[in-house]
Each structure stands twice: as structure tokens, then as C-alpha cells.
Amino acid sequence: MIGRLTGRLAESEPDGSIVLDVNGVGYELTTPLGTLGRAETASDGSLTLHVHTHVREDALELFGFATASDRAVFRTLLAVSHVGPKLALSVLGALGGNELAAAVEREDVAALKRIPGVGLKTAQRIALELKGKLAALAMVATAPRRAPAQTAPSGAEAQLSDALVRMGWKANEVERAIAALPDLERPLGELVRDALATLSR
């Protein structure tokens, strides 16, 4: 089983599919939105992703995550009735591990139902079956904020970050541009436009 990979990003697609070049071997992985912008990056540009190896009778799939906690949340989601890898990725792409944990502890079905692909019954199952299982993450998400660097990016921020990284901007440049935006509660297209204007200065 593959647990972690470090390499250079060789290919990336809008749906989160990437190819990570590890010493000349290209590993195909599927990642939640925002992963590339939050992944640990070395000075040489290589990325480290925490990997879940999903084995089925007819396939072996690799899923990559920026942190070990995101991978742990993904694995916990897979244990929920009628939640498969694709939906689990959608959940993490929309909320992130800490935000999901907080929503579950609050039994915030409305927030879960806003995730693409999650209907009322699935949202209720996630809230019910994960209650108490993500308590440690929920404590991180709901604790008083001491510094911006300690907080998890929102769903909109993660999507914007991922989009800019895919365009070739460096993570530190992306963070600066996002921090300069006055409002993230807008369509992604507008956010990208304004962030690019900041990056081009």
C-alpha cells in the first residue's frame, strides 16, 4: 500500500486528477479541490501528498491529500453508508477536514446539504454516523483563532487557491493575493479575476 508520495507535478486536470512524477515514475492520483495549494512544498518545487490506496476487484486507485488529517477524514467518510470515494472527495473539496468536523459536531445538515452531490438523506447520514468520530478535528476548527496561519482555508478559498496554483502561480504568491481580497463570498470566476489582477501588479 502507498501511504505517501513526494515528487513533481507533471499533469493536472480541473477535476482534481493529477500525475505526480516520483523519480521518473508517474503516479496518477485524484485529489480534492484545494489540495495542491495546501500541500507541503519543498524548495525544489516538489510536493508531498498523503495517499489513500483504494483497492477494488477491478481497479486500484490512488487518492492524494495535503495533510494526514484530510486523509483520515476521507477514510472515515468512506465508512458512511452510500458514500464512495467520489462523493467523499466532493465533501472534502467543499468543506475541508476541519470545517466538516465542525459541521458534523453541530449537526449542521443544511451546510452538508449544500455540498455538490449531497442530498438531504446523505447529509443526515453523515451527521449521524460521524457524530463524535471527528471530535478532535472539530476542536481545532472551533477553537479561538490565534493567527491566520493556524486556520483552515474556507471552501471558496481552497477552490481559488487550487485554481491559481494550476495556472502556475507559487503557493506564497497565491496566499498573498487571496489575503488581499476583501470578500470571498463571490463566484469563483470573479475571485480568480481579482486575484490575477493582484498577482500581476
Give an overview in words.
Helix 8 crosses helix 10. Strands 1, 2, 3, 4, 5 and 6 form a six-stranded antiparallel β-sheet that branches. This protein is an alpha+beta fold. It folds into three domains: 62 residues, Nucleic acid-binding proteins (OB fold (Dihydrolipoamide Acetyltransferase, E2P), Beta Barrel), CATH 2.40.50; 74 residues, DNA polymerase, domain 1, CATH 1.10.150.20; 47 residues, Orthogonal Bundle (Helicase, Ruva Protein, domain 3). A hairpin with a 5-residue loop joins strand 4 and strand 5. Helices cover 46% and strands 19% of the residues. The termini are far apart.
Describe the largest sheet.
6 strands, antiparallel
Radius of gyration: 17 Å
Number of strands: 6
- The CATH class designation of the largest domain is Mainly Alpha
Quaternary structure classification: single chain
How would you classify the helix and strand content by structural class? alpha+beta
Topology as a string of helices (H) and strands (E) = EEEHEEEHHHHHHHHH
Secondary structure tally, helices:
10
CATH superfamily of the largest domain: 5' to 3' exonuclease, C-terminal subdomain
* Count of all domains: 3
Beta-strand content bin: 15-25%
In the CATH scheme, what's the topology name of the largest domain?
DNA polymerase, domain 1
End-to-end separation in angstroms reads 45 Å
Specify the helix fraction band.
40-55%
Low-confidence stretches: 137-152
Per CATH, the architecture of the largest domain is: Orthogonal Bundle
